Input
Amino acid sequence: MSAAAPAVHRSALPASTAFLSVAELGAKLRRRETTAEALAEFYLERLHRIGPKLNLVVTVTDQLALEQARAADADFRRGHVRGPLQGIPWGAKDLLDTAGIRTTWGCPAYADRVPKDNATVVNRLHAAGAVLVAKLAMIELAGAGNYQSAAAAITGPARNPWNPKRWTGGSSSGPGGAVAAGLVGFAIGSETWGSIINPTTYCGISGLRPTYGRVSRAGAMALSWTMDKLGPMARRMDDLPLILSAIAGADSRDPTCLHATFAYPGRPASLRGFRLGYFPADRLPSYSPVKEPYSRALAVLHSLGAEMIPTHLPQFPYGLAAETVLDVEGAAAFENLMAGPDFQKVPDAGQKIGLYAGAQVKGVDYLRAFRIRGQAQAGMLAYLHGFDAIINTGAGDIAPLADVPFAAQEKEYEAKHPHRPIAAAHGAEKNYELSGAGNLLGLPAAGVSVGFSAQHHMPVGLEIMGAPLAEARVLQVAAAYQAATPWHRQHPNLADL
Amino acid sequence: MNRRSFAKLLPAAAALPAVACRSSHAAAAPAAAASPLSTAQLAQYQKGAPRRAHSEAHLRAYPLTNADQPDFIFVAAPEAKA
Output
């Protein structure tokens, strides 16, 4: 299905089309101001021209995209509107199976892997009339073994549209960068631990990590059977409920999928009546590049009428338990890879070492993590009864450099800040606590841009986490914040690429 | 997200409760012949043993009783379990 050479030409659509939201693109289609085919050609051209410069794309699906776009146009002409995603170009993280189109899991060991069937999420978006334009880059194996640099990807280091010397974050690197660069209308990423929220905040876009079990993972690469989640990434918070509505719901192919409906009541005019717990900004060190934007974001939420309550999570070893679960399940998921010759095709040594280490963990330690998880879940559910959402910084810092190993960057950082405050050393600085808890317990969270760092002018984000199945509440908080701020209307200048 | 960066966020070793660190993957030296890793990678794996031992000791310090059973089919929303 993929085409080696671009078969499309520059579109007559204005360049600003690239950064329209799903809702805006859909409105243009329904008003017949453009066609799905013209939109597909527009984004395909950008994918071919810009995608390789930023290492954001594995495969451009020209032929399929044009077929789907023409079918969407035919439906529009017949007055058959399937929903808000009809005719909207989208990109899939390259761990979602696509029938007849190679799906590499971001790793040279799977460079020629061509699945026979679509992932359930792909089928659901096809049924919604969305147009698949690309399979997007990712960290190999979604970072299964703990990678050492942004280069751990079949496409090379994913470059951030805001500054190509910096990384997009991972492991949903392509979805984050492609949405920010206006190469797709929206994307589907995955998160086991941080892989949606992290690139969302590094790239200055909007993302949602749904509740574990909310979205079927059938046909998606497994990294951790009890932690993997699939979720939408887009330029506007208001788009995320539209996408989640299309992909959520029970699936006989995924027994972990919940029988739960998703309903979004719409973006609220204010946050009056919302109780938001937040991690105070003074937990961040003075030198943190996210401290000032984070402080301003808390003030905006307060000004919107939310009751703001400083808080800390119930005390459980979330992060350590999550690491144990992820390490062991990752090693089991890639047991065959480790046992065969293709293991040597995994280029990042850290991945290989990490997978191997995961295979050495004792059964009692894995079960210990599960036993702790049960207690932490009970504690967290009781705690969350008191809040509509919990707020913290997103990734906790700005995007690292794309071409320097992480260890070297961390060493330089340590040298610059030898007397880091205790709070920083215990995780406030890197959002370890909230991210570890949210992913261990499968809780939903939204990532939203809250501005730019003073130095380097890179996006900074917020994580808004809620109770299980409380995506609507989380999205309402994020959407109300976004509507009151200008950050989502700023886009990277790609003219110099 | 790169999880290695989190390792330094753990409390210092001196702050650890007195827990015997039974040697599992943390300190055990794997036999090179049974490993898919190269000699250099095995050396790097060994270099990470103290960090892994540190993490394991913390996890093992968490108090659990015989009655605390694992939930083998994890469900994030218990009310949706039935």
User: Anything to note?
Assistant: The CA atoms of residues 10 and 51 of chain B lie 9 Å apart. Confidence is low (pLDDT under 50) at residues 1-29 of chain B. The first helix of chain B runs from residue 39 to 47. Residues 22-65 of chain B form one domain.
